[in-house]
Amino acid sequence: MFYYVLKYVLLGPLLRLLFRPRIEGLDHVPASGSAIIAGNHLSFADHFLMPAVLRRRITFLAKAEYFTGPGIKGRLTAFFFRSAGQIPVDRSGKEAGRAAIREGLGVLGKDELLGIYPEGTRSHDGRLYKGKVGVAVMALRAGAPVVPCAMIGTFEAQPPGRKIPKLHPVVIRFGEPLDFSRYAGMEGEKAVLRAITDEIMYAVLTLSGQEYVDRYAADVKAEEARKAAKGPRIPRLPHR
Prior knowledge:
This protein has helices at residues 2-19, 46-53, 71-83, 96-108, 134-142, 154-157, 190-208, 217-230, and strands spanning 22-24, 35-39, 58-63, 86-89, 113-116, 128-129, 146-152, 171-174, 212-213. The protein has 240 residues and is of the alpha/beta class. It is globular.
């Protein structure tokens, strides 16, 4: 119930007023039945802007940290995310991927929309990164179409580290549904899962026009963090 209060009364009208998003291809989102909306992830605002423009309710898989913060602020944040249709998923450990797939299949099993960011994390530099194959597993097991989606302008509106978004033109662009029924029963084939995921990411890339990086975003972030921790290299002066 509170989801619709947020969408139509509290948050949705405010987001539309502030960002005035231009929506393209909304008719590509199925009016009924299960479907996966697979998008790029540029900003914290993505979680709320996309649901605000969709005609149907959508459930996202979100990182568990949003639900486990301490104190009153943490409890309010968790309540807000749950009310906004977010499901917490632990992204650490070997079971993380399986847990996300189980939760996602539960949503699709109820003929609902599932939102997922195949990159697995927000882009820290505005580029599009390699997708993880969980989206392909869910598409095959549920027999659900995948609708690619591109968020454009949200990185500029709220880049990582900025708490309050600034006004910036935003475009939300949906592509034609991708049907992977030809691969039915092949969710155990790694090559098939990779091919499906790459096709999804290429569709998102075509819609967004981003620069593509054929590496996982989490790996690049970790590598850059290690380099930053080491600090700049200071050349040694020769002995006199």
